[in-house]
Amino acid sequence: MTGIGKSRKTTIYDLAELSGVSASAVSAILNGNWKKRRISAKLAEKVTRIAQEQGYAVNRQASLLRSSRSKIIGMIVPKYDNRYFGSIVETFEAMARERGLFPIITCTRRDPELELEAARTMLSWQVDWLIATGATDPDKITGLCAASGVPTLNLDLPGTLAPSVISDNYMGAKELTRRILLNSEKRYGEKRPLVFVGGRGSDHNTRARLRGFRDAHHDADLALPEENMLACGYAPQKAELALHTFFAVPDRNTGGLFVNSTISLEGVVRWLTQSAYRGQDQPPMGCFDWDPFVTLLGHDIEMVRQDVPAMLAAVFEIIDAGDVQKQQREIPPIFVS
Predict the structure, then answer these.
(1) What does pTM read for this prediction?
(2) Does residue 213 fall inside a structural domain?
(3) What is the domain-level CATH number for residue 321?
(4) Which residues form the domain of 141?
(5) Does the residue 5 lie in any domain?
(6) Which segments constitute the HTH lacI-type domain (predicted)?
(7) What pLDDT does 259 receive?
(8) Which of 28-37, 69-78, 99-108 has the lowest average pLDDT?
């Protein structure tokens, strides 16, 4: 494919020639109205990609002509059946309505294709902002929305092209690890390394938490075997299988568990039950997430509650100011014993 010469700005007509469609179709795609024109998602993605490759910038005056502010604000979330993401949705809705905005929210199940489809649909509704919560590829969503002149903000997982609001995952994990280690030493009378369970090593939050986990062991002068890091994914069944596999090796000298979310905790609880590690035999534990019912599991349990109200307050502070510049705000979590 031949690129447009950079001595002049790329136009819609240039994009139409490169993509092999009409200029009106290109305009509909970049303005988020491709579904109304019965344009396929595959073609819409192709045109958007070409626009990004050519450095095409939406004419701001023209984009403003699509309508005055719609007062619609969109959010995508990876899950509903999780207390953390459920709290984000409820708080977001309340704070949006306080500002006279109409919130549209959809669950994308950590599926990259669903995330882009949701973003395109929200663009067709002419949202004023799109909040990408826990998105697998937030920069791709930002690029898609930027082509239509719609600002985005990343929540929970950061991106590199738009403002991001996240928990302080490193310090939260380091402090949580320190607390579990203290409980473990009190229980066993000696220092023992912990096991990290859950999450994906490829995502920002898990990497930051693993770093805090390692550094807390280092500060305690405690060797941490590499095999103790079970970043096996968030699904409960994956956490359960990872623990069965890990403890199938005899004489594991471990002092407790660091569980990376309440989603993974479901699998951990099943493993505890099947392995008869209940009551006094339940190991010291900590979870980077919060659910009030976890206290019923027993003693020596520490939890990190991500400060959703403070996170959403930062989100709307950015939106109220209309600040689209890249920045990252880290909100300290709250500890619950």
Answers:
(1) 0.78
(2) yes
(3) 3.40.50.2300
(4) 67-162+308-331
(5) no
(6) 10-67
(7) 97
(8) 28-37
In a domain, 6, yes or no: no
Residue 336 in any domain: the answer is no
Which tokens go with 272? 């505890």
The verdict on 289 and 323 lying in the same domain is: no
**Buried residues in 219-241 as b, exposed as e (16+ CB within 10 A):** ebebebeeebbbbbbbebebbbb
- Smallest CA-to-CA distance from 213 within 166, 178, 253 is with 178
Distance separating alpha carbons of residues 299 and 278, to the nearest angstrom: 10
Provide mean pLDDT across the span 175-201.
Answer: 96
Regarding whether 290 and 190 lie in a shared domain, the answer is yes
| Number of domains comprising the chain | 3
